[in-house]
């Protein structure tokens, strides 16, 4: 029984070929292609409004040097947002429940922010490892602690996204299984469980949006430290 709960997190295969790449590319099909017309439809207008809003929220804390990352961070935000929301649909697969994929997104981008700081302002970036006014006996310990906290940042990014989405999907499946089982035994309890399931689904929609925003927001904060 426990194995069936985690089957939803295994990558689907067709003729032995993993379909995770197809599920990652599918959200791009939902975005309307840009055109040169002055008057567009409502979907294109809504898409432009959302992109402008996301870009404004992410770029406000950054200076002009950080605005070069606007395209990368905004595209990542929309990508994670669509994947997380589509994963809540029945009989779908959520690639962001895979730690390997989240680490593949978090590690290169975190490393890029770190290398940017080391290239542009090496003294300031290295100065983050040792707070000002530290007593001399504590310098080796603090450097070790700050270095460790710096290196676990990409791991924390990937695990946070994976754990939150995995927990939400498991809760939805557990409650839906209980609701179906209790339908013939205790209909009143089953109706109450279904109501809780609907509320939980609404909560998971909010969690999917918040986790995508937090992932990109933390990357922008790491970038802010290095520019």
Automatic annotation (TrEMBL):
Q: Which SUPFAM superfamilies match?
A: F1F0 ATP synthase subunit A (SSF81336)
Key words of the record:
ATP synthesis, CF(0), Hydrogen ion transport, Ion transport, Membrane, Mitochondrion, Mitochondrion inner membrane, Transmembrane, Transmembrane helix, Transport
Extract the Gene3D superfamilies matched here. ATP synthase, F0 complex, subunit A
CDD domains, A to Z: ATP-synt_Fo_a_6
PROSITE patterns attached to this UniProt entry? ATPASE_A
Q: What is its main location?
A: mitochondrion
UniProt keyword annotation of Translocase present? no
Question: Which Pfam family is one of those matched by this entry?
Answer: ATP-synt_A
Its GO CC terms?
mitochondrial inner membrane; proton-transporting ATP synthase complex
**Catalytic activity of the protein:** H(+)(in) = H(+)(out)
Extract one GO molecular function annotation from the record: proton-transporting ATP synthase activity, rotational mechanism
What membrane topology does the UniProt entry give?
Answer: Multi-pass membrane protein
Q: Does the keyword Cytoplasm apply?
A: no
Q: Where in the cell is it found?
A: Mitochondrion inner membrane
- InterPro entries recorded: ATP_synth_F0_asu, ATP_synth_F0_asu_AS, ATP_synth_F0_asu_bact/mt, F0_ATP_A_sf
Q: Where are the transmembrane segments?
A: 12-31, 69-89, 101-118, 138-158, 170-190, 196-223
Q: Quaternary structure per UniProt?
A: Component of the ATP synthase complex composed at least of ATP5F1A/subunit alpha, ATP5F1B/subunit beta, ATP5MC1/subunit c (homooctomer), MT-ATP6/subunit a, MT-ATP8/subunit 8, ATP5ME/subunit e, ATP5MF/subunit f, ATP5MG/subunit g, ATP5MK/subunit k, ATP5MJ/subunit j, ATP5F1C/subunit gamma, ATP5F1D/subunit delta, ATP5F1E/subunit epsilon, ATP5PF/subunit F6, ATP5PB/subunit b, ATP5PD/subunit d, ATP5PO/subunit OSCP.
Q: Which family does it belong to?
A: Belongs to the ATPase A chain family.
- Provide the protein name: ATP synthase subunit a
Protein's organism: Campephilus guatemalensis (Pale-billed woodpecker)
Name of the gene this protein is made from: ATP6
């Amino acid at each position: 029984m426990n194995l069936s709960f985690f089957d939803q997190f295994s990558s689907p295969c067709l003729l032995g070929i993993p379909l995770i790449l197809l599920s990652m590319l599918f959200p791009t099909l939902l975005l309307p292609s840009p055109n040169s017309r002055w008057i567009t439809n409502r979907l294109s207008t809504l898409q432009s409004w959302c992109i402008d809003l996301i870009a404004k929220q992410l770029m406000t804390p950054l200076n002009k040097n950080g605005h070069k990352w606007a395209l990368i961070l905004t595209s990542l935000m929309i990508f994670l947002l669509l994947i997380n929301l589509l994963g809540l649909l029945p009989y779908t697969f959520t690639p962001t429940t895979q730690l390997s994929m989240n680490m593949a997104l978090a590690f290169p981008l975190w490393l890029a922010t770190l290398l940017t700081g080391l290239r542009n302002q090496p003294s300031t970036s290295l100065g983050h490892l040792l707070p000002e006014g530290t007593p001399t006996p504590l310098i080796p310990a603090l450097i070790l602690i700050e270095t460790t906290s710096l290196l676990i940042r990409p791991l924390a990014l990937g695990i946070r996204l994976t754990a939150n989405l995995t927990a939400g999907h498991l809760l939805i499946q557990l409650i839906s299984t209980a609701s179906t089982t209790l339908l013939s035994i205790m209909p009143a309890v089953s109706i109450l469980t279904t109501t809780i399931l609907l509320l939980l689904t609404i909560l998971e929609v909010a969690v999917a949006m918040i986790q995508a925003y937090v992932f990109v927001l933390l990357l922008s904060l790491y970038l802010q430290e290095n520019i």
